Amino acid sequence: MDSTAGSCNACGATGTALMKLSLGKDFFGRIYDRLSPSTDQSPKWYCEGCSMQKNLQRDFRDITAEIDKLVAGQTSQLSKSDEFQRATLRVREIVALLDAAQNRSPLLASGEVARLLERLKTITVPA
Ligand SMILES: [Zn+2]
User: In whole angstroms, how far apart are CA 94 and each of 40, 58, 91, 113?
Assistant: First the structure.
């Protein structure tokens, strides 16, 4: 596929440089499961702004999934305090990046991320 001929799979931008995103590892360093439809779709093309947000969306999803497990009492990456700290910092960073973005993200709503940050604040992980 010609990288300038298509349109961004998220916002539909055309005539701009597009990047094929291949998301090899997730936020917790695990190999990305490309066969799992809930976490990955077939490789797509994104413009610069959306490819950045796509990475944020991926981390947001990973962290949300791990919080759900933690709250449910299952084994979670976030039960390790260093991973929990790292995830909290990343969510703060995502909130800041979305707030600073010129265009509203078609991929990730800043309100959702803010709610995730609130959830993180209610959880105490033993050090
Ligand atoms: Zn785009």
Answer: 19, 11, 5, 7
